[in-house]
DNA sequence: GCTTGTCTTGCGGGAACCCGCAGATCTTAG
DNA sequence: CTAAGATCTGCGGGTTCCCGCAAGACAAGC
């Protein structure tokens, strides 16, 4: 049994190493990689079945790395280990997990006990373990507080990328007016209107929406970069023109 | 001699504690705070002259905390200790440092030797120490690659907040056309035009500018939040109504 | 069937945005 | 003082955005 740790902070890396050795005495070998890119290579070379993965790394973030690892070996068990419970990350993870794969999601602020428990549960018993703080975000469809539909979230990302309404309509195969409608209902969910109501001063609604999405941690730079890469793919592989 | 450590990650906190005790044997007491808010209180209560401050914390980020600490005791020596060399953070720090104050800025990835050296240099010899990677950003005015004027950066922040051109004009006491001019030169610096040139597909320029600023780490959520708070101050203290 | 509700699409217009052009102001160098 | 250069400002227009209104599509329920 061999475990691969992918984490770019040296302290956290050694902490994880120690925790893994302590929680899993049956573990023969613990490998380490310093960023997502190297993690992919190491996982491919060593054929590790168990991975502890940091999100938010320099060279290549944990979501990208996990996706390629799962693409090559879908039975790999991955425990995600993240700083915050940003909605963008949680969504990103749940978007790439393949059918039936086992994974976990724990915050760096959890106690060592919980971490070790999660290691044993995910790696040995193939249970999915998700921290309570994260769980709150994962179940979508709550009381409009910060529960965006998948469709609305998609629109939000496209807007945050700086796309035009018309461009979004082409990409999503929708009418122009429909895109604008979804934007409006996005504005309502984000309380954009309430703010402009206070003063006569007006916001530019679409950029304001991006701003509050940032502040509410619905978006972050990594999510935008991911979407940007997907966009460039669509952009070059197929030309978008006409009805 | 007493040192206050403000850092919300437990591992980094203990690492810093050890480093401080090792680098500064003449240090009597090492205090710790878990976020910016508590750090302010502890600094006020203990009258610590030396602070090691993390940026990017939950409750109140390091820049805010440092500002209030410096406002109460401008002779406090602060060593900033950050994950990345994000332009937004560097700008934020250099914006709040008072006249003649001594401070340092080192990355978490630097070696323990460099960290200890920085601790001694800043705290004992009152030297300003700034990591090489950070230095690159600090000197502004380079070959248009990512060198934004202060004025351009201000505009960028206001746009990222979601403000209207007219609103920005009022806030900055400028003409509407001037704001739009600055926006145009911002677009050029960010290469917004080059991108739209590839395809007929159009971007919404202002949100696109925010997107690339995010991806180039010129902006981040903390910077937006900071600006938002300033905005709300102006908003309520004085009413903005054009002639 | 009829109604109710949600989602999509079109039309139209007022407002905001993007920008070329040209005159006015201010700085800097010779 | 003058000339050159950068910045600010107003005007006019083409485009996009924001949104109220209304008609069609589809599903669920009495």
How would you summarize this macromolecular structure in one to three sentences?
2 copies of one chain form a homodimer. Chain A is an alpha/beta fold.
Characterization of the model:
- Two copies of one chain form a homodimer.
- Chain A has 243 residues and is of the alpha/beta class.
- Chain A folds into two domains: 2-138, 3-Layer(aba) Sandwich (Rossmann fold), CATH 3.40.50.2300; 150-235, Winged helix-like DNA-binding domain superfamily/Winged helix DNA-binding domain (Arc Repressor Mutant, subunit A), CATH 1.10.10.10.
- Chain A has helices spanning 10-23, 36-46, 62-72, 87-96, 112-123, 132-138, 150-161, 165-172, 176-189, 192-198, 205-215, 221-237; strands at 2-6, 29-33, 50-54, 77-82, 103-107, 129-130.
- Chain A has a six-stranded parallel beta sheet.
- The radius of gyration of chain A is 20 Å and the shape is elongated.
- The A-B interface holds A 9-12, 15, 58, 84, 108-109, 159-164, 166-167, 170, 198-212, 214-215, 217, 220-221, 224-225, 228, 235, 239-241 and B 9-12, 15, 58, 84, 108-109, 159-164, 166-167, 170, 199-212, 214-215, 217, 220-221, 224-225, 228, 235, 239-241.
- The structure holds a DNA duplex (30 and 30 nucleotides).
